[in-house]
Amino acid sequence: MKVIILSAVFASTLLVANAAPVDNDLGQISATCRQSLLSIVTDNEPCLPLSQIWSQATSIDWENYDPSNADQLSPLLITMCTAPRCDKSVTDTLVSKIQTECSQEPQKVVKAISYVLENYEPLIALECTQNSQQEYCLLVEGKDLRYHMDVDLSDVPDNKLCTECVQNWIKVYDQYAESYADLFSNVTDVQQVKQRCGY
């Protein structure tokens, strides 16, 4: 069994960034959809500083990403996590706008933005999880997280699995798993982690 909850946390962080380069993708979609996406980015919704997030996400060299230097994610996390939280009605309205105006668009940038907006609450909660020292868990455990993504759960040492951050991520899972079943559909190891770690 894979450490799927850890994979989900890390993969969600990389999803939108891997939709880059945005310029190439935007040039291939309809004018209506392009205008819709640009308006979402430029409308400056305080809870979605998308132009800042996109700029920071695309400035990271994801193809040569070195998990031992997880601090390169720090500006991106700070921007995302210090913004006020969006009300679900805001993200639902934006998703509806994208679905209406970009319904025929197959580009990954459209799918990535829609996915993030549809799953905004749990993704922000996962990505912005902190430990008791107020450090972002993705920065503290980034290297271990990436290293253990595809490892059998039984092969992950207790000191790497039973951490404060993993416990906090499991709390997020417990809070959102029922409401966001699609997002967490592949997360199958939570009960095993809880049992092993005593959470």
Order of helices and strands: HHHHHHHHHHHHH
Q: How much of the residues is beta strand, in percent?
A: under 5%
Structural class: mainly alpha
Q: Overall mean pLDDT score?
A: 80
What's the Cα radius of gyration?
17 Å
Task: Explain what the structure shows.
- This protein is an all-alpha fold.
- It has one domain.
- 58% of the residues lie in helices and 0% in strands.
- The protein contains 13 helices and no strands.
- It has helices at 4-15, 22-26, 31-42, 50-58, 74-82, 88-101, 108-118, 120-127, 137-140, 142-147, 158-161, 164-176, 190-197.
- Helix 3 packs antiparallel against helix 6 (88-101), helix 4 runs antiparallel to helix 5 and helix 6 packs antiparallel against helix 7 (108-118).
- The longest helix is centred in the middle third of the chain and has 14 residues, at 88-101.
- The chain is globular.
- The two termini are 19 Å apart.
Short description:
The chain has 199 residues and is mainly alpha-helical. The protein has helices spanning 4-15, 22-26, 31-42, 50-58, 74-82, 88-101, 108-118, 120-127, 137-140, 142-147, 158-161, 164-176, 190-197. The longest helix has 14 residues, at 88-101.
